Amino acid sequence: MTQTKLDPLEFRRALGAYTTGVTIVTACGSDGALAGVTANSFSSVSLDPPLVLWSLAKSAYSLPIFESTDYFAIHILAAGQVELSNRFASKGEDKFGGVAYESGIGGAPLLPGAATRFQCKVKHRYDGGDHIIYVGEVLDLVSRDEMPLAYHGGKYALPARKNLRKLVEGSTSKEFSDDHLGYLLWRAWFHFSAALQANTVVAEFTDHEFMVLMTLFYGGARSAEALAFKSLPHGPEQRASLTSLENLVSKGLACAKADEQGRERYALTDVGRAKALSAGVAAMSVEADFLERVGPREGLVLKDLLKHLILETGGGFPFPLHPGESET
Amino acid sequence: MTQTKLDPLEFRRALGAYTTGVTIVTACGSDGALAGVTANSFSSVSLDPPLVLWSLAKSAYSLPIFESTDYFAIHILAAGQVELSNRFASKGEDKFGGVAYESGIGGAPLLPGAATRFQCKVKHRYDGGDHIIYVGEVLDLVSRDEMPLAYHGGKYALPARKNLRKLVEGSTSKEFSDDHLGYLLWRAWFHFSAALQANTVVAEFTDHEFMVLMTLFYGGARSAEALAFKSLPHGPEQRASLTSLENLVSKGLACAKADEQGRERYALTDVGRAKALSAGVAAMSVEADFLERVGPREGLVLKDLLKHLILETGGGFPFPLHPGESET
To answer: Is A82 part of the contact surface with chain B (CB cutoff 8 Å)?
Structure first.
């Protein structure tokens, strides 16, 4: 068996295939200096005694601090702590500036907002090539039920619980209905829309009328032009939204008024606002139900990915529900 | 600072907050016996020399094998290897039965299909409480561009790249348009549908007509009853799909025929099949474009989560595109 020296870049890339959480490890040196580094080399080691480990580069600026104390704190970061992670991953010297930390065992700075925090006493310092492996005994832990931040392939990630079932038992994943993005999007929206239609107020409206109603409710008065869902030059959606607007007007739920500049603007009537409020509450209730069914964390990841898809495929579509978008 | 003994269950739960990949570590003992264990205690240690580590319980059945050799292989599992992970996480003695492994350095069994595989020589064995920490020098690596399996909170997961942008810059996440699941689902489907409508064949159809066309194309002949999208008892969707069927018939794309039992079944005509084929190709093309934009791995996670949502909120909706569902 021949053995060639590993290409460091290839090795680093290969390591990226392993998904990890993101931690910040902090300590207070014997001279009172504070250290904090972002690390994804954390690993659980032992249950009895409770041990965890992480590795620090021997070349790290903060090595002398970690070497001068027997205590450190490990923060498993929550999904919202990307900025904190970036700050402690940088080489800056004033990483703690403006951070509201407390002082923990051995003076280690305790950062707020982590999903889980371990306070540790060094049990072993082991040699690990260009790193030192710190094995710490966990003296204290605080855990919050919070979506954690993950890291994979050099990018921040969220752990999405894997769905282990098929839409139809016995189907192969190659089948259209089980694997086609368009079908899945339509289907998911179809379920949401159907659940929404169970509300008698919502049931009075088509999907498009509902969206126009909500746009006027959340986004405020705007022109017919700004209400058109400009999907395409020959846009069937554009026609649909204008027809929907006409329907709302004929039902007495919306009406045209001139603004200060004399431009025609459509707004909801009092009756329209009451309907919209009721429909909006129904939508929130369906959302709450769906998120509970799919799991709140999975819901968060799903929403995150849908936003990503929407942004990547938007190509000039308006965001009709956003107030800032009522055209000038 | 008082210190109370940690509750082992609480400690274990807290460790679950840290997302990990899933590995299977294998070795061949000095007597030729094979060992393989599922482990998520993997961690990268050093770049130069290239070192990685993992931990094995001192009580592990396979400990004597790992102690009798200086070589092991670490497989970072791919998303599709849940079954293999479960098999090597169990206590069974014949874990390798039926697995097409090869023999690697030091005889360590190399399993097929992993996202990344490291072959290692033990550099250090360190004490880690109730575990032994194996630090291995990486002698050989094979890496494939494959979605890896992750693990979080005691469940299998997929790492979804975190979207760091907002739909509308400057909006707060509390706003309806940036955070409402229903809006995001509608919007995502709207983008897909609009892109699809750019195809002149697809543009001849409404969303519902398109779904009925595709159902007959992929799912085969069926009754009008089986084509109704039964969303609700008072179902507007049901009416929509029946109207859509009538439209397809009047355009000469579908027609009713009696099956062997004399029951009325709707099927596509030759012209209808040609249109469906063309529309199906367009749908595949939009899918490919969307998946490229969102990223193939993110697309995989998104589809996985949509399936999960669909399954959790289905409540008796039919799956019209699946062949097995053409009713009897």
So the answer is: yes
